[in-house]
Design a protein that fits this description.
seven-stranded mixed beta sheet, Metallo-beta-lactamase, Chain A, 10 helices, globular
Length: 314
């Protein structure tokens, strides 16, 4: 009888410990962690005197720019997706979540989507004034690599071999670390210093896609379908809710697909697979960050707002 009771208890514990964010029931190998969900400036935002920022400052609320961290549970290797201006707390969080304390070489590879401030300024922290990394692979497009090699302060990091720009070909699979397969898909965006990509990231037990910045889904026919094809979780650009949150600002200068339009396009798929589509890169003014009822409403439709620290096993 004691053995039967013990077996039942173990079964209950096993069922109760199932990770809700895992896209597959299989063991998987790579943990993908969300390390930031906000637009480039985070929350609170420099130059913002709106109520959302005032209340965040008063309450000590902090949201960091959109960023992912990947942990290889077999080898302990770590990958950082985006090097934001808040790279130190994000790296610290990755080390905490993965249980892998690191020092001068905080990760084994970096992936960058494009050269806007919230996505690559953190590279400066790898220089000799701070971490002083050695030969850290930074995976970028050829155009982005050329920018890093020819413009300061980045070219000093390259010359000192603190970062090593490593190029990939668009829509061709590459492996920043063994066993992890990444495809960079070009997306339309403001490309002043580099082109812009989304990353489709595949492990042995699942696939995710990271699309923090895009001007519009319909700028390239079939692009949205290509991005979400075969993925278990899609983190999608949600900079603005409906565009009305920035009165007086010309949104044609900073185009992004409003969340309401994205939800309309993906409504049926979200209904069939709740939680598959998760919004990320939210502007500090986006009401979804500040209105619990609005978040609940989109969750009832099968969508989610990404949460710092959430994990997907692939």
């Amino acid at each position: 009888m004691r053995r039967i009771v013990t077996g039942l208890l173990l079964l209950v514990v096993a069922v109760g410990c199932h990770a809700p964010d895992a896209p597959h029931t299989g063991a998987g190998r790579f943990d993908v962690f969300v390390l930031g969900i906000a637009q480039d400036g985070g929350l609170p935002h420099v130059g913002c005197s709106k109520g959302c920022c005032r209340s965040a400052r008063k309450a000590g609320r902090r949201l960091y720019p959109a960023c992912l961290g990947i942990h290889d549970t077999e080898t302990g290797k770590l990958v950082l997706v985006e090097a934001t201006p808040r790279i130190e707390p994000q790296l610290s969080r990755l080390h905490e979540l993965s249980g892998r304390a690191r020092s001068r070489q905080p990760v084994d590879a970096v992936l960058l989507t494009h050269a806007h401030i919230g996505h690559y300024l953190g590279l400066a922290q790898f220089g000799r004034e701070v971490a002083g990394t050695k030969g850290l692979p930074v995976h970028v497009t050829p155009r982005f690599a050329g920018f890093l090699r020819t413009h300061g302060p980045w070219k000093q990091l390259v010359a000192l071999d603190q970062i090593r720009p490593t190029t990939f070909a668009l829509r061709e699979v590459f492996s920043p670390i063994p066993g992890l397969f990444v495809t960079a898909i070009p997306v339309p965006h403001r490309d002043e210093f580099s082109d812009t990509v989304a990353f489709k990231i595949r492990g042995p037990q699942g696939t995710v896609v990271f699309v923090p910045d895009i001007d519009a889904w319909d700028r390239a026919p079939g692009l949205l379908e290509e991005l979400i094809d075969g993925v278990d979780v899609a983190w999608l650009d949600a900079t603005f809710y409906d565009g009305s949150e920035l009165p007086g600002r010309d949104l044609s200068e900073i185009p992004h697909p409003p969340m309401v339009m994205t939800m309309e396009r993906l409504a049926e798929s979200a209904r069939k697979r709740p939680g598959r589509f998760r919004f990320i890169h939210l502007n500090h003014t986006n009401p979804v960050l500040h209105d619990a009822a609005l978040r609940k409403a989109l969750e009832r439709r099968g969508f989610r707002v990404a949460q710092p620290g959430e994990r997907v096993r692939i």
